Every structure is written in C-alpha cells, then in structure tokens.
Amino acid sequence: MTALDETCPAVGPLAAVVGADQTVATLGGETVTYANLDYAASAPALTDVAAELARALGEYSSVHRGAGHLSRLTTARYENARATIRRFVGGRADDAVVFTRNTTDATNLAAHVLPSTGSRSGVDAGSDREDVVVLDIEHHANLLPWERTGRARIVESRATLAETLDAVETELLRKPAALLAITAASNVTGEVLPLRTLSAVAHRHGARILVDGAQLVAHRPVSIASYGIDYLVFSGHKVYAPFGAGVLVGRPDWLDATTPYLAGGGATADVDLAGGTSWHTGPARHEAGTPNVLGALAIAAAAEAIKDHGYERIGYHEHHLLTRLDAGLDALPHVHRLHIFDDVADRVGIAGFTVDGHSPRAVAEYLNDRHGIGVRDGKFCAHPLLRRLGHPDGAVRVSFGLGTSSGDIDRLLAALAELA
Fold first, then answer.
1. On the CB side of 336, how many CA atoms lie within 13 Å of its CA?
2. 347 and which of 84, 167, 190, 356 could share a cystine (Cβ 3.0–4.6 Å)?
C-alpha cells in the first residue's frame, strides 16, 4: 500500500478497451504496458463497441433508397442510432439528430444555420438577434466557427466562475443575441460549467444555447430537455467510438429553415434543372452524400455501453482517480496544475500542468520514451485560454477514462517525481 492508498483507494479499470495490453519499448530497453493517459484527445474504443461494429460490418451496405436486404438492414440501424443517441442525451421527442464528422463539423453546421436579422428562422423573426456570445476559454471548435460568421461577441472570462456568469449575463443584457455558445467541460483543465444556470441565463435574455459536450458526455449524464439545452454537439472519438463521426442534437426549426450545409444527393427532395431544386427537411437536409454509417453506429453502441456501466459507477471511478492524481501532482513542488476559475471544484478526468525547467514537449517525450506513458502537450486547440493562464507556449495534459487504473496514475506520478 502506498501513502496515496490511505486517502485515495486504488481502483482498477472500469471497462475493457481495445489496446489495453499494448506494449512499448522504452529507451532503457524495457518492454512495458503502454499507459494511455490521453483520453481527452481520443478515447480508445470500448471492446463492446468494437464487437458491435464487427457484427455490423458483416451486414454493411449503403443506406437509404435501397431495396436489398442489407441496405434495408443498415438503413434501419443507422436511423435507430439517431433514436439511441437522442435518448442518451435526454433529447426532446422532436429534436433533430444530425450526424457530422466531429464536434468541429457539428459546430460549423450550427454556425451555418444561425439566423440572420429578419430571417424566418430567427428566435424572434424580424428582431436584431443574430449575434453569438461566447467565452474566451473555448476550444477552437467552439470559437472559430462563430468568429467566421462575423457575429461573435467574445466575453472575457474572470477569475471566478461567479464573476464570469455575471459577465455573460451583462453582455446578453447589453445587446440581444441569437445564441450563447458554451463548453460543458474544459479540455485543458477539466473544469465543468453549470449548464442549467447558463441555459437559464440565455433563455432569460431571449437567446438559445449551444453546448459543446465533447469533454462531458463520456463522464457525466446530460439531459437536453431538463437542462434546457437547445443544441448539443459532441464527437464519437471522445466517447469510446472510433471511425470519426460526430453529432448535433437540437431544435429542428433553424436546421429546416436554412440552405443545406452541403449540396448533393440525399439532401434533395427533387432536382429540376428548369424549375430548381427542393430540399428535404429533417437531418437528411444536412447529410448530403453517403454518410459515415459505421461512425454513427459506433456512437450509438458507445452510448448504450456507457449507459450500461452507469454514470454513478463512472463517477465513483473517476473521482478516485482524479483525487489520486491531484494529490500526487500537488505533492510535487516542481509541478503546477492549471485552473481557469478560483471557485470551481467540479472536474472531469483531465488535468493540465507545467513542470519547472522543462518544456511541455520535453516532459511528454520523457514520459513516453522513458516510461511508456502517453500524455498530450501543446496548446490543445485552446490558444487564447493558454495565454490567459500565462502559458502561451503550452502545457502538459493528463486525461483518463473507463480503461484507466490507479496503477496508471501511480506510474505517471513516479515518473514525474523522477524527472525532478
């Protein structure tokens, strides 16, 4: 038993993931089991998900408009995946579930359907609500698409979350907006924002809310309906689902009132070169071309697997690992953890930190080359946030999930202690 075991009970992996037995050779000549502590970039596939995909591959075909047995079967699975995902995130019965490439793509789709002044798809048709209010702490996926519209109003975050919420409300009160776009959990520090509160703030001032759930939905339950979320976006590769798909779930009116995100087959109801093109409504309107069927099925399979494991068990597992990690990092005088707000204790399994005397890349290479531990270094597609935190050159990030054990955390802490 280690000193950490007395305050942070040791836990094993909660679920089996593909590649858990992967070994790597260190520069010291050892062969060790690879410790994947980079879940926030891409979580490994759950073995349950891989098994479901292997089954689907044997019966795979192109979806929609096919009379053949495999086409019908695959189409049914693809459309059922929408219903599974809608239930997983507590969506409303009429919420659209649109499959995309990833969170970035889903957010760009949302930016595409953002109403402009006087459009019939506006929150208040004919009003001046067309801007998007967004914080400066966001991942680029929830920042650059809005800046590209020319209608983003960036709110500078404050030292505390309470002050930041006040700043958001002040900005919405100062001038009407169509949308508040917010992250659910920081990909740099893991800090979780209060979605119910933010939804209430947005709606109080006549705006809708879009939530970037990429770093949350694998860790915590989300209910679009009960939280009052209008749009939720996330990626399969963050929720143990391979094959590069994402999803936008939310209210259908803006989606149906806007021109298709992509023009092409599948989105069209009729094409008449003389009379013009008419477009489908619903998800098909924005899913032109052959979709990433396996990616969609993977997200649905992962949603079912996460539900089966249960968020209570997931939370217990994560709490013990995070407590162990934080205690161990804080005991190392040369390591400094990052945080955005002074008053937020709620976090998912992510920790950003710096190490005195070593660049982030040097730390990451040392952990990999000498100890077989994979972490992430850099600016994590959140350059403004890293500048705000005083680390414009980046930091190191550790992140974990269902396949992580306390032994993985202990290996990291021992390696960092040795680096001193």
1. 13
2. 190
Listing DSSP states for 93-133 in one string gives TT-EEEEESSHHHHHHHHHHH---TT-TTSTTTTSS---EE
Which helix H or strand E contains 311, and what residues bound it? helix 311-330
- Tens-digit pLDDT profile for residues 301-328: 999 999 999 999 999 999 999 999 999 9
Does position 5 have pLDDT exceeding 90, yes or no? no
Question: How large is the C-alpha radius of gyration of the chain?
Answer: 22
* CA-wise closest residue to 193 among 152, 234, 164: 164
Q: What is the DSSP letter of 363?
A: H
pLDDT given at position 105: 98
Token representation of residue 45 = 């596939």
pLDDT over 70 at 275, yes or no: yes
Task: Annotate 376-415 with b (16+ C-beta within 10 A) or e (fewer).
Answer: bbbbbbbebbbeebebeebbbbbbbbbbbbbebbbbbbeb
Q: Using the structure block, give the residue that is written with the tokens 């994560």.
A: 318
Is the four-CA dihedral 88, 62, 109, 140 of positive or negative sign? Answer: positive
Residue 83's CB: how many other CB atoms inside 10 A?
12
Look at the block and give the residue holding tokens 């009960």: 226
* Residue 298 one-letter amino acid: A
Q: What DSSP assignment string belongs to 331-357? A: T-TTEEE--S-TT---B-SEEEEEETT
Residues 6+ apart with CB under 8 A from 112: 258, 261
Which residues touch 418 (CB under 8 Å, ≥6 apart)?
none
Dihedral sign, CA of 99, 104, 105, 109?
A: positive
Answer whether 214's CB lies under 8 Å from 238's CB: yes
Encoded amino acid at 98, one letter: V
Q: Which residues are catalytic?
A: 381
Backbone angles phi, psi at 409, to 5 degrees: -65, -45
Mean of pLDDT over the chain = 95
